[in-house]
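Here is the promised in-class demo. Please do not try to memorize the tokens; focus on the logic of going from shape to residues.
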């Protein structure tokens, strides 16, 4: 993907500001997308000798790729400079269909621009998105709620730190918090996981999807979505004569439902209600007679709309565990952020998340945009949601 921004310029009061152009290059692997970016950068640098290379950002997703594209631009400029005494000045020089050609009428201006750009090409910003984000956070540490001298932890050091902080946090949660809801979350998850070390694994696995945990639009759903269906299914079985079905498991299930009143509308109450007949629900055979179609539908609901061997009880228990896991992980993230700030450290995920949050401030986003005229993103498909959000903020005018 290539995103281009017009140079910042003052606009008279009341005038419509200049709009930027965003361009996407979409093609298969090995078809020359990166080469097209190099050609675009050459055109920008040589058609405007006043354009400083540091006003261009080339964003890639590995250090190796960042170095390679910068080298290719440098080499292309050198290749072009060597041709000015010839008949044509093109790039690539060996190609029958060059992507860039110096117009004959402006050769001297292009020669001078090439000389000047070669002298300062080291100022070109070719870096990974993490490096780019780090540079922004160094500019705005206070606004990003960071220690101005923050240090990046990675690899073994990060794993060791996270393990130590998890143990400290878990001890506070289980032994010191004295909070009924917190203890209930741990109990619900322990029922599902079986062991404390499994809970630790679950929490750490969710940390990599912090972008979703921080997004309030993503939820696990609630009992309200199936409450009416469950109640309807139970009422249907309460009206059914146990003797009208031949399946023994279904007969036992109907007898239980007719004997026990419907629970109040809460997740825990429904779990407790279905627990004594969870095995019967898993074992029922669906009736095929047309006269029992409503019973068939009710039993499907109690299976969780799954196949034989499934049960709404397990689904509800799993949902309760998932809700508890999300709650635990969010509390751990909050604890982790606080402790890392006290220690003055961040990790690679923090670089992205804090930059995305920083650019949510329209004034800061505008100040950042004014530092660059052009932003190129190579291999956009390698981005995640947070990276895409950062790029969107940089490539979108505040004027819409």
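The designed amino acids, position by position:
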């Amino acid at each position: 993907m290539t995103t281009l921004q017009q140079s910042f310029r003052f606009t008279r009061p009341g005038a419509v500001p200049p709009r930027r152009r965003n361009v996407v290059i979409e093609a298969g692997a090995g078809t020359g997308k990166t080469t097209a970016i190099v050609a675009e950068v050459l055109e920008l640098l040589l058609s405007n000798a006043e354009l400083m290379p540091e006003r261009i950002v080339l964003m890639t997703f590995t250090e190796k790729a960042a170095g390679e594209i910068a080298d290719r631009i440098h080499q292309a400029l050198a290749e072009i400079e060597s041709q000015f005494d010839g008949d044509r000045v093109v790039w690539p020089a060996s190609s029958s269909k060059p992507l860039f050609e110096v117009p004959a009428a402006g050769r001297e201006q292009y020669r001078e621009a090439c000389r000047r750009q070669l002298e300062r090409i080291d100022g070109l910003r070719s870096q990974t998105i993490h490096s780019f984000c780090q540079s922004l956070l160094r500019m705005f540490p206070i606004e990003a709620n960071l220690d101005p001298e923050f240090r990046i932890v990675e690899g073994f050091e990060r794993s060791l730190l996270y393990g130590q902080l998890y143990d400290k946090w878990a001890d506070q949660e289980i032994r010191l918090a004295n909070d009924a809801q917190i203890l209930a979350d741990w109990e619900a998850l322990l029922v599902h996981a079986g062991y404390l070390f499994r809970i630790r694994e679950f929490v750490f696995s969710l940390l990599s999807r912090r972008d979703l945990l921080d997004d309030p639009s993503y939820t696990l759903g609630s009992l309200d979505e199936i409450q009416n269906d469950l109640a309807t299914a139970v009422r249907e079985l309460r009206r059914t004569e146990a003797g009208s079905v031949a399946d023994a498991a279904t007969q036992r299930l109907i007898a239980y439902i007719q004997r026990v009143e419907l629970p109040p509308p809460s997740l825990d109450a429904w779990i407790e209600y279905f627990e004594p007949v969870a095995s019967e629900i898993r074992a029922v055979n669906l009736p095929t007679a047309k006269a029992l179609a409503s019973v068939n539908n009710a039993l499907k609901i109690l299976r969780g709309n799954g196949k034989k061997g499934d049960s709404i009880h397990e689904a509800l228990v799993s949902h309760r565990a998932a809700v508890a896991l999300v709650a635990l992980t969010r509390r751990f993230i909050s604890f982790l952020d606080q402790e890392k700030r006290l220690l003055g450290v961040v990790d690679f995920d923090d670089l992205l998340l804090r930059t995305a949050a920083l650019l949510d401030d329209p004034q800061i986003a505008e100040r950042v945009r004014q530092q660059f005229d052009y932003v190129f993103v190579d291999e956009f498909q390698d981005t995640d949601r947070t990276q895409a959000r950062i790029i969107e903020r940089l490539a979108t005018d505040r004027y819409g």
